[in-house]
Write a structure and sequence with these properties.
single chain, 431 residues, mainly alpha, 2 domains, disordered C terminus
């Protein structure tokens, strides 16, 4: 059985990695056309108007990363598609904003441009964006992304309610509102995580065979590494996990009795499957980059830099990284946090009252599972101290999962009748 499971994961890995590489090579092999260049110039002007980090409704957008995504897409070499697909070449100007550099590059002003490479990232989004630019410029792509997000949101709301009722709907509201969901369609950098998160939620909620759940999370992890650029990748796992982990756990306890085996299989198994997919996907790209460039030292330098507690002329602690991200979450979402608190407090009081009246019982295993889910974004910040300290204005979004999971932990108060029925069923099975 273990060998069969291993072969399934290996098969999925080979299929997805082959698909990723083929998509990158296909995109890189497409030659520039007059229309493509024209649409790229228009997109570059759109980004240049706002600069690298414009603010919209008090939310900082990442035009810098958007420009990098377009920069790499434009720099794909159709004469060397395999090499350029793996190498992920970009061009930069010393002391200039990335939006300014992109604008110069697409307008053939390359005298002061310096070549660089991001071979350690897949940049799968660049492959997609290049293909889309044969048809649309950036504003129309934003409209397309916005339409897709709204479509996924509508279906996600239906499934969240079917899976977890009102608590599920409110948890989805918490995680999306604290992420500043309303501006995601305006950013190429922010959209992959939401596409994967909402798409994953719909997928796992429609999936009837629980035995395939780990493979599903494994696939989501691989897709996250392919498309995302360390924005808040934990959300790609956390959004579907918020709803399906609790449901699967309660069903497992109802069918097999209360034991820690079910708990570990779900609350550790699902995150482990997602993480395995994420690490194997990203690790494969790092190895491909090393094989192409041979620059092992630079790759490991960047890895250790991201997990270090120092930056350009600054020193900090891992605790300070955590505090800085929580502070940004609070400063950016005070009204949302207040409204959330106004709803949660009476909800908690009702639950405690019903528990004291013996109408509810407390499922400590379910509570512990959601606490572990809530701790995951904090663990990511702790581990990636350098990255999350410097880029707190985007990495804080992972903490939206923490807040939503803490709310879902209140569902650990379960109707007593259900538990009496389970106790009787378990006792009968033992006899």
């Amino acid at each position: 059985m273990k060998i069969k499971n291993f072969l399934i994961y290996l098969y999925v890995y080979m299929i997805l990695i082959s698909t990723f590489i083929c998509l990158l090579i296909l995109s890189a092999a497409l030659p520039h056309t007059r229309k493509f260049d024209s649409l790229m110039r228009r997109s570059a002007r759109i980004l240049a108007k706002g600069g690298d980090y414009p603010e919209t409704s008090g939310v900082t957008l990442d035009n810098c990363s958007d420009s990098l995504i377009l920069n790499i897409a434009y720099s794909f070499d159709s004469k060397q598609p395999i090499r350029s697909a793996i190498e992920a070449v970009f061009y930069a100007e010393k002391g200039k904003e990335f939006t300014h550099t992109l604008n110069n590059m697409v307008n053939s002003k390359r005298n002061s441009l310096v070549k660089g490479s991001y071979a350690r990232y897949w940049f799968g989004h660049s492959a997609v964006i290049k293909i889309l630019h044969y048809v649309w410029h950036l504003d129309k792509i934003y409209v397309l992304y916005g339409s897709l997000i709204l479509f996924l949101l509508f279906i996600s709301v239906v499934h969240a309610y079917k899976t977890a009722g009102f608590p599920g709907l409110f948890a989805l509201y918490i995680v999306l509102s604290l992420c500043n969901f309303q501006v995601f369609f305006m950013s190429l950098q922010f959209t992959p995580v939401i596409f994967i998160g909402l798409g994953g939620l719909i997928w796992v909620c429609r999936q009837r065979d629980i035995s395939r759940r780990n493979v599903t999370f494994y696939i989501l992890g691989m897709l996250t590494a392919f498309l995302d650029l360390l924005t808040a990748p934990i959300l790609a796992f956390g959004i579907p996990a918020l709803f399906i982990c609790g449901k699967d756990f309660l069903q497992a306890e109802s069918a097999n009795g209360r034991n820690w085996k079910n708990w570990f299989r779900i609350w550790f198994g699902y995150p482990a499957a997602w993480l395995a997919g994420y690490v194997m996907s990203w690790g494969t790209k790092i190895l491909l980059g090393i094989c192409l460039s041979g620059n092992v030292q630079q790759v490991f330098h960047q890895i250790f830099l991201r997990i270090s507690t120092s930056g350009k002329s600054i020193e900090f602690t891992r605790w300070q990284s955590i505090v800085k991200n929580f502070q940004f979450l609070y400063d950016n979402s005070q009204l949302i946090l207040l409204l959330t608190g106004i709803i949660i407090v009476p909800f908690l009081m009702v639950k405690i009252y019903q528990w004291k009246k013996h109408k509810l019982v407390f499922n400590s295993r379910l509570f512990l599972g959601y606490l572990m889910l809530a701790a995951m974004p904090i663990a990511v910040i702790f581990l990636m101290a350098n990255h999350t300290y410097i880029h707190d204005w985007m990495t804080y979004r992972g903490l939206a999962l923490t807040c939503a999971a803490l709310f879902m932990s209140l569902t650990a108060f379960q109707p007593e009748k259900r538990w009496i029925h389970e106790e009787n069923r378990c006792s009968a099975a033992m006899l």
